[in-house]
Design goal:
Length: 119
């Protein structure tokens, strides 16, 4: 019985490691943009890394393909900005006069994770 419990625990750990590895794959820093489309699907924002110029505006189109409630809101940490996303639709959000910094954007539970680099 104990062996079974330990096996189950090990498998769970492997699953968690696999999940985090998949969802936190690092991509090279992209070049600065004023507009981008982000696909919201399978627990991952694609692209998960956006770069913009400080003092300028950035328009983001979030295309939500994931119907799970987890994906319904995107929150920009440190920028006081959040938006609800409708399943199967594209929601446009514009950030103005961006202050320099690195900001995370996530869903409420922080399963979806993205990074906005402003420099
Ligand atoms: Cu979530």
């Amino acid at each position: 019985m104990n062996i079974l419990v330990n096996l189950a625990g090990l498998m769970l750990m492997a699953l968690v490691v696999w999940w985090f590895w998949l969802s936190r794959r690092k991509t090279a820093a992209p070049s600065a943009t004023h507009e981008a489309t982000i696909i919201v699907e399978d627990g991952v924002y694609t692209p998960a890394s956006i770069r913009a110029n400080a003092g300028e505006s950035l328009t983001l189109h979030f295309e939500r393909r994931d119907p799970s409630p987890c994906a319904e809101q995107v929150i920009f940490q440190g920028l006081d900005t959040s938006e609800f996303l409708e399943t199967g639709k594209t929601t446009t959000l514009t950030l103005n006069n961006l202050p320099a910094g690195t900001y995370r954007f996530t869903c409420q539970m922080q399963m979806y994770q993205g990074t906005l680099i402003v420099d």
